[in-house]
Amino acid sequence: MKDRLQGKAAVITGGGRGIGRALALGLASEGADIAVLDMDGAGAKAAAAEAGDMGRIAIGLKTDVTDPTQIPSAFKEAVHRLGKVDILVNNTGIARYAPFLEYSYEDWKKSLDTNLGSYFLCAQQAARNMVERKRGKIVNISSIVAQVAMPGSVAYAATKGGILSFTRVLALELAPYGICVNAIGPGPILTDMAQKTLGEEDRRAREAMIPMGRYGVTADLIGAAVFLSSSESDYITGQTLFVDGGYLASGVSKKF
Q1: Quick check: 55 and 30 in contact, CB under 8 A?
Q2: Is 156 a catalytic residue?
Q3: Exposed, middle or buried, 68 (CB in 10 Å: 0-12/13-18/19+)?
Q4: How far is it, in rounded angstroms, from Cα 136 to Cα 130?
Q5: Nearest-CA neighbor of 7 among 75, 123, 86, 60?
Q6: Out of 97, 119, 156, 247, which one is annotated catalytic?
Q7: pLDDT single digits (tens) 43-55
Q8: What is the pLDDT of residues 167-188, one digit of tens each?
């Protein structure tokens, strides 16, 4: 099925690379015009250019989504160029790993500002635009670490768990305005960030926990994002869809 998002306008944060880029282009492939927000202005513009090649209206905006002074102007530009905001994909995130007893407060605060603070700022700005039209979709990217503990990830796990509660509260408050708010929880996805932070031994150990026998790739998340952004999910809100190859369902090594 194609063109499920025809006539829709989407804002994707952290869309200059990795999961965000895949989701931005995935939404564009289904007909959405897109605005890509990213600290990496060149990456944002490159993703927008690729969407433009599909015939979409697409813009890339260099934006620090943790800065409350930059969000209103970024969304104002998105509305000016796209006409409206129907969809927000909150994807921006960082991961700083260290044992808890050695974890710095600076990394803790940076993680909360990026992984939770930016979601609040962007969702609030997007929802104010959506309320006027009594319709909209907000998709927050969480993680399986919201459900299972991973050593060394205290800030990352805390923020990803927070996103699930954040999603449920927004779903409750925004439902009267016709706005659906859901989350996607990626499992082990082989992004550039994962390749940099995971050693070979860690990677093999995690693969052994995945019933489907492989790491996910960014394209595996597109279907869930399109579904939650489309009219097909108009009666779904406050939910988290885990895309994890069966990881959470198993909990044991596939080499048992």
Answers
A1: no
A2: yes
A3: middle
A4: 5
A5: 86
A6: 156
A7: 999 999 999 999 9
A8: 999 999 999 999 999 999 999 9
